[in-house]
Amino acid sequence: MKIIDGKNLKFEYVKWNEEGQVESSMKAVDGVDLDIEAGDFIAVLGHNGSGKSTLAKHINAILLPTEGSLYVDGKDTRDESKLWEIRQTAGMVFQNPDNQIIGTIVDEDVGFGPENMGIPKEEIWQRVEKSLKAVGMWEYRSHSPNKLSGGQKQRVAIAGVVAMQPKCIVLDEPTAMLDPNGRKEVIQTVRELNRQEKVTVILITHYMEEVIHADKVIVMDKGKVVMQGTPREIFSEVETLKHYRLDVPQVTLLAHELKQSGVDLPEGILTIEELTQALEKCRSGKKLR
Amino acid sequence: MLRDITLGQYYPAGSVIHKMDPRVKLVATLAFIASLFAFGSVSSYFVATIALAAVIKLSRVPFRFITKGLKAIIILMLITVIFNLFLTPGTPVAKLWKFTITIEGIRTAAFMAIRLIYLIIGSSVMTLTTTPNDLTDGMEQGLGFLNVFHVPVHEIAMMMSIALRFIPILMEETDKIMKAQMARGADFESGNLIQKAKNMVPLLVPLFISAFRRANDLAMAMEARGYHGGEGRTKMHPLEYKKTDKIAYLVLLVYLALMFLVSRYMKIETW
Amino acid sequence: MVLKTEHLNYIYGAGTAFEKQALKDINLVIPENQFIGIIGHTGSGKSTLIQHLNGLIRATSGAIYADGKNIYEDGYDKKTLRSKVGLVFQYPEHQLFETDVFSDVCFGPKNLGLCTEEIEERAREALSQVGLDHSYYRKSPFELSGGQKRRVAIAGILAMHPEVLILDEPTAGLDPRGRDEILDQVARLREEQKITVLLVSHSMEDVANYVSRIIVMNRGQVLYDDVPSRVFEYYQELEKVGLAAPQVTYVIQTLKSQGWDIDTSVTTIEQAKQAILKALNS
Questions:
Q1: Domain count of chain A?
Q2: Yes or no, beta carbons of C89 and B187 under 8 Å apart
């Protein structure tokens, strides 16, 4: 079942001068077709300014397409009467953990979404407990968000979205401001949500290591989708990725370089185990000869 | 450190007063202040003093914490007292250079001073015994009736709680910006007043830009989580009156009645 | 400028419930023209340490010597120290405030009390050192991209002619290309200007290609202080403190444990490639 269905999406940022005339305009999203199946883990890659964040904000109806259409779970994002339903279906987690936590105590923040939806008190507390447990932050429920680490804050933000019981979560560079440990925490949490709660995940990022486990990777450049495929397919195209200002994980790059020097390795190696195993094969092959 | 400063200086002591519903405390504080102005006689101030002392005793907050708030208004109090002392017409008792002190002047000055002191002490007891969060909740749910007069109670409460969340963040950010500019040779300490104000520009510009960016991000995050004003919203902490709260209201009524009665029928004439 | 720390201790919030020893007995020598990486996770003390080096934070005990002079001695000129030890903070948004790029870069040298010509000369020079030409001079710093803002911030420090340049997470939030561009620029600067560069990061992979010495911080202490290849040999210990060696280290170490005769002192992809090719062909 399709959960997100976008056709020829375009979005233009228009800059107005003081007389109210158009001074300049920039197409941040330029003719993107989106087709996402429920339950998928989708990663959107792209350098800063490639339009990936603008695209993400369309899924939650924070931005509406200048041209084209976008359906979230069968609902047109331009239909104002469906606005709150759409925001409940597609939750959104942003980059800066500090700027999206509203509550002064962790559990209060997680309850913010359900409160807005008008859920009865008892159910709010059930949802708060369930979502905080799902992200592993239950023991911090009565802490102030200010005393948490970046990764923990982001997990609270994710819990806040999960408590609204969305079918789909869009994460807009959730790890860009975190250190490696925080990054790991967040990605692991997101993967578990996807696997256990069957939530559709759309992860926007420029860290290559984070997309290895995605079902599908979409690469964006200048507002357009330029590459699409499984992580393995994408990472076999080392040169193309470099062209789009992206890079590949060190192992993949090392495998690519070795292949260029004539070592017989398969394309799109993603993990350390894959590389060492493939190299081991090469060595034993040589020994036999 | 900057980040440990909290607004409203809550003093945790777990007393009866602490556990009381914030709405009771808000209403009682307002009623207490109103009573000071409505019943201005020596006998009623005697009652008010006893009531205030009893509440302070019950709150278990050390007295020196309560009087801390007074330091801030010393200047204001002195001005009020001096003005009243010298500028009230009436029976003269003493003459100081060109100014005459009257009996009525002394009387009003004394009353004004007591009123101000009690006002500050009364509200300090409230803020010291109520967490900022409870206070916001109390405001929203206890003063909801003000909506009739087009006072945006929910919005004010929401702004208060957002401010509570962001004040520590902005404090920390101020510290970081100061250091970043000091690394470029900025000086925030020396110079005269104008020089000092000018030196603040490299601190204030990044701080304001950051605050606006945060506000923008936060607004977007709130919308994304379905926030659309107070209408149709439920509360995860709905306030419910307990037995002690009902008793407290009763005590408040008794206090007000007493104030009314003594100011009416028990005139203590001191002069 | 040679910097030396002696038994440096810093206790945060002394006497309160929040008391925490942020630095514990730090003894380091930072010689001239070295490229050093300081690695540690959030809260390891690395940010606190660098703020000591230019006198923004005063140590609780211990001493710092800049060219042999104790900076805590009475009458030591902190302002000159701050111009000699230039510190670029993580977020350029924390320091950009002028209406255009050029004036913003002038702020530092202006505070040094130089004449207008010298100030402008230095600003021009610093902006060209970070690769920003005339077309950027009159732009508002707030309209620039993340990478460009960072360059302006670095130029703002370079214009003070520091002898030691400290960069706190200069690549945070940048995309891969932006990250490489900044680091390449810094490496070039160090060679051309003969300055010392301290690069603070939580990524070993980022710094491995550039630095000749890595200082690993953990819980306010120096855990390792050595050339990269020696530090990465402790990859198992690094993992325990929440850090990771570059992926190539793991590849080589795994091969070694599988009985390969391979050189384990490699730190970059290029070196790893050569080592694997050599092992395969022997």
A1: 2
A2: no
